[in-house]
Amino acid sequence: MTGQIQHLPDLGGLEPEDAKSVLRSTIREHRATRSARRRTDAGDAIGIIGSHLATKRADKTVALYASRPTEPSTGALLERLSAAGIRVLLPVLGDGLKREWGDFNGLSDLVERAPGRPPEPSGQAFAMQEVASATLVLVPALCVDTSGCRLGQGGGWYDRVLEHVSPDALVLAVVFPDEVFNIDEFPVPREPHDAMVHGALTPQGVNMFIP
Ligand SMILES: Nc1nc2c(c(=O)[nH]1)N(C=O)[C@@H](CNc1ccc(C(=O)N[C@@H](CCC(=O)O)C(=O)O)cc1)CN2
Ligand SMILES: Nc1ncnc2c1ncn2[C@@H]1O[C@H](COP(=O)(O)OP(=O)(O)OP(=O)(O)O)[C@@H](O)[C@H]1O
Known about the structure:
three-stranded mixed beta sheet, binds adenosine-5'-triphosphate, 4 helices, alpha/beta, binds ligand FFO, eight-stranded mixed beta sheet, Rossmann fold
């Protein structure tokens, strides 16, 4: 699967940090053009595919994220996982940019603490290490390549958190189908601290990179 985003930028000659920044702008612009209908459809498909995956694997705890408007929507998946009796951990940033987790307790419990920030659960916050209890870790990304290198929003939140994931957990980036790039055609710029993922969850299915 190769990216169909038109006009992927030429990253040749750029340092990885600058190349990431250019690529983030391109993908954010492209995400902003997606219609509400296509976003809803993508969220519905991610809900079905992600919940089938977790129930088939018998995951008891899944780490996920509460999506912001242009991200692949996770609302349907949150509700399906919860209805299946699976514990769902969501990032809690609190008043600052803390790296903690909270339990998903229904969509109505999620609060956007400031405009543009991801919605968060209101209940007890657990330390970053709580993610070690998850056997399936679904992370936000702007894109990913087939070697498992992901590009996030640039805060380094997930790179630091992924250090605490169980070595047995399956880690998937949640992206739109055209955000999965073939490593031979368009490698995602990589820095030494970047944590790799095993595959991608898209509205078209699960794409495993690492067996
Ligand atoms: N849905 C979601 N949750 C996530 C992430 C993510 O990429 N997506 N993160 C991934 O690492 C972590 C934190 N991500 C954050 C993303 C934005 C801002 C933020 O402050 N945003 C701007 C608004 C920008 C905008 O309007 O788009 C702001 O409030 O000024 C903070 C943390 C954890 N939770
Ligand atoms: N494990 C780490 N330890 C210390 N600093 C880190 C670590 N991971 C990332 N950083 C720092 O965080 C900043 C953002 O990193 P990067 O551009 O890789 O974020 P990202 O993976 O795209 O975003 P996110 O993880 O928030 O989705 C960089 O300045 C980087 O140096």
